[in-house]
Amino acid sequence: MSDTFTEGFCLKLSGVLPPEQVRAVRDLLSVYTIGFKIEPVKMDVITQDYQLPQAYFIFLAAKEQDGRMKPGTREQYRMCLEDLLFKLRLPLEDITVNHLRLYIQDASRNRKTGRPVSKNTLNQRKSIIRSFFSWLYEEEYIEKDPSVRIKPERADAKPRTAYQDTQVEALRRACDNLRDRAIVDLLRSSGIRVAECVGLNRRDVDLTGREITVFGKGEKWRVSYIDAAAVVSIRAYLATRTDDCEALFVSERAPHRRLSTSGVRKALHRLTPESGVQDVIPHRFRYTMATDALMAGMPVESVQSVLGHSRIETTMHYAHVCRVKVKSDYQRFAR
Fold first, then answer.
1. What pLDDT sits at residue 156?
2. Which CATH number does the domain housing residue 78 bear?
3. Catalytic hit among 26, 78, 217, 270
4. How many whole angstroms separate alpha carbon 285 and alpha carbon 189?
5. Do residue 120 and residue 224 come from a single domain?
6. Catalytic: 286?
7. Are residues 193 and 324 in the same domain?
8. Is the domain of 236 the same as that of 269?
């Protein structure tokens, strides 16, 4: 039974962690669980009173077949919808908007701490619920969609700020190794997402042409660009590499494995004391690149392409901060 537990647990992790990390966890569990007897807990109360409807499983399968659901996303859908359905324990056609409202009210707080969850988290759950019931209605499992009146939470308007050039230089100087400096220069010049950064392989980087081939959000490939500083930093970092890992960025200690998104975040966080720059997160580099490009007069359609946005409205979230440029452009026009 220990082997069954280990394999099942690692199967769940496969949608969250890179394969090499899953293998490491499997090896540790295989050793640690020796001598333990692991048996599944029988949940008679739940399974006897309610069974998940077949439409739920067909919905997940349809999503996967459409190519719009990654393993990690599937797990989020599974956890949210199973929690909803087991709590309501009603036939799908009997679920009303008030049932959903009461469930969402309950889900708006962390059940362990009692603290409110973030609006982004709550909106994610609402989106999953709306997606499920909209599909049920379209597939004629239900006669009326009870989720149409479930509105998204109004997100808090957090002021977005780009790094100043002096802050970027302070971050570069605070790097105590060539890898971290290469990451800073790459993120700053290309504007790619942190997940795209760690997904890069050496072969994806053309230092001569100053181009990188990125596998981005929505499982789409695109080409982004880097400046001379990033080329110099990446070349210097790669010259120190003696491992055979295909990843562009790897862990500092052997065995050198592909760097994770959390590894990048931790590396950037370590720069705060030395640089004096607060809120050092990967997305600010993306925001900085977009803001600087728009301020320099780059067309918003070109910025959209570089950032990999499917909708120009998303790119316009970056454009609205360029008020200084808008004002100067207007003053030139009004003369």
1. 56
2. 1.10.150.130
3. 217
4. 8
5. no
6. yes
7. yes
8. yes
202 is catalytic: no
**Within this chain, do residues 210 and 173 fall inside the same structural domain, yes or no?**
yes
| Confidence (pLDDT) at 48 | 47
pLDDT of residue 152: 84
Report the Cα 174 to chain-centroid distance in Å.
26
CA dihedral (84, 90, 92, 97) in degrees, to 10, reads: -70
Same domain, 54 and 145: yes
To the query of whether residue 269 is one of the catalytic residues in this protein, the response is no
Q: Are residues 243 and 223 in the same domain?
A: yes
257 catalytic, yes or no? no
Q: Mark whether 318 is an active-site residue.
A: yes
The catalytic residue among 283, 317, 320, 327 is 283
Domain boundary among 131, 158, 185: 158
Structural domain including 125 reads 48-158
How far apart CA 189 and CA 204 sit, in angstroms, is 16
**Which residue in the list 56, 77, 103, 318 is annotated as catalytic?**
318
Selecting among 181, 193, 258, 284, the annotated active-site residue is 193
Any residues with CB less than 8 A from the CB of 147 and at least 6 apart, and which? 97, 100, 129, 130, 132, 133, 134
Which stretches of the chain drop beneath a pLDDT of 50?
42-48
The answer to whether residue 217 is catalytic is yes
What pLDDT is recorded for position 45?
A: 37
